[in-house]
């Protein structure tokens, strides 16, 4: 079976810096995958390549086997990919309902779009914010509004860039539950570096380090892998023996 | 739904107001005042075109006068060449719209950033200004129409009764047409902004990346709203050509600057504000022109500086906020 | 040979003029990300203050090289206090406010001096190159531009003030955290930019003639030169002036002055389409 989304030799260079280096990644339908790695590992650049914000220097991106490298962000979104950026990207001047309605309005009529938008807001437990102006909401609420915007059109794949950035431990746990629930109907890729959160969702994990894939495995084994500890804690290899993993 | 109804109501009210003005003013004003009023209406329409492009599309165009000038010149040249000036209307609208679309294609599909957009629109206006200014010689003519360089085309024929080239429209009738155009364009703007297309345009102004990530083609929407703005500015230019005559000053930076000032003072992000701003400031400029010791540029410039510093949101939103505070 | 030399000098003087009229704008844009649309009027006021000083009996060179930059520099201090400072970070609002200022200055000067051409004739006579002659003042302009450019470069590169300025330019927040009074740096930068504009206005006055509206003839050209140059104020402005100035001169030679300018503007648009961040967005990125 062809993968839902795959990259082949994806590479992104900025001048002399190779931010993403020959990455081969494959995500299946209904899969939940975390991309982790320390700061500067290349996750966010990789995310921007996937979402069409950067045009990769080399390599290909395949959607159900079809080459989509270099498509504009709107064309990528139209394939059925929902994208949440790291800093909530919202229509500050509109109400929450108006914003989410726009997300579904492309495929549905006015009335149906509004109904679906309201349903999405309620699904995330923020139905009461429907008429609030988005620019005036608190950070956590904005994150939820953006998640509603992303799930409302029922995409086949959802890509989330650091969804727990700036959240409290409690909110982080709630978001993990939410993402597992989203995963029931959609494939999800989560770019993260919060280890607590990774433990909570316990999915397949791909670890980035210096622009390359270091390990790719299930959560348990990745979290126990000494190499992963090294890149996160910056321990030299010889110190590895002294401390039990 | 109530929002839609309110938009419809405002559109209808605008048309009624325009209808009243068109019926009443010609009865009370003298010929010279009628022509002057037509110029005011044309300028208000020019302001409305920028209000749409800048206030709702988020595109700061320093060259709205270029489309105004193109509309005027396209009308003048076509009217001199065609037997019936009615046929010049589509040309006067089409040329500036296509020019706006071409320029928009370069800017939006080239992903030029805000400030650079200002530079490009300004530059194009200057190019046109310089070019038209240099067409004084007899070799510069399109068909029967000499371009006339800095003198412009003084012999611009006015619109005639459709189908009857022998009967030119009277200034009163041109005034009625101008008012109808302004009212109609205002209504169209209102309805466009309430449509799905208009909401996407506003969403793009709010957050370009988010709109793109929802699958909306940012470049196309900007191009479309810019082209509509170009068309409306062209219409304003055509009306202007019908009551004054076309000359290179239509392309001048002073005109582009004035339009920006009108919209800024009236309120960026509103439609009615810029129309009122255009009328008020035109009147102010005209009044300042009668003062012997004061230069109108000085007053206009100071108004702009004070407006930016004191009421950055413009008259309409500021007054509306005051009004709301008074009546809770 | 003589023709080539004369043409070369012509092109160089075109480039020098472009660079001269753009430098003040470039300093303000490079340091503060402020686009000063009243820049053309700063040039105009530089020219007028030189004329007034000459009429008051001050030596021509002192009037051009000292009085003009001083007067316009002081004006810059006032404008920064009253307008620019209140609008930091609001780029579009700054553009609008300075545009208003530009209109107001044109209006005020027209009221005082009337809408007539003033000016003083170019000193230094003409220089013979084989069969051709070129004005000595044109050569002086080229030299003056080079000296001015070198001076700005040296100040930025070698003095403490220059270091502070470069630091603020790179990262204003960090500079502020290190105790740099960024407000004062900005105020001084604006004044310095205004002074350079005033000097430039006085220097071009003998070549161009002086009218209240002369600024409009220059603002677009300098604006385009600076934007085409990109982020680095000296390297960007020089390279853009070099390119656009040559295009303008050659276009003028081949056709008419008007079409030469049209060609230059068209090239600038094409360049911006290809290099949206300006020339120094792609090349000479680390230079000043």
UniProtKB/TrEMBL annotation, chain C:
Looking at the UniProt entry, the stretches that span the membrane are: 12-30, 60-84, 96-117, 137-156, 186-211, 250-275
**Protein name in UniProt:** Urea ABC transporter, permease protein UrtB
**Which species is the source of this protein?**
uncultured Craurococcus sp
Q: How does it sit in the membrane?
A: Multi-pass membrane protein
Question: What does the similarity note say?
Answer: Belongs to the binding-protein-dependent transport system permease family. LivHM subfamily.
GO CC terms in record:
plasma membrane
Q: Name one GO molecular function term.
A: transmembrane transporter activity
Q: Which domain of life is it from?
A: Bacteria
Task: Alphabetically list the UniProt keywords.
Answer: Amino-acid transport, Cell membrane, Membrane, Transmembrane, Transmembrane helix, Transport
Presence of keyword Protein transport: no
**Gene Ontology biological process terms, A to Z:** amino acid transport
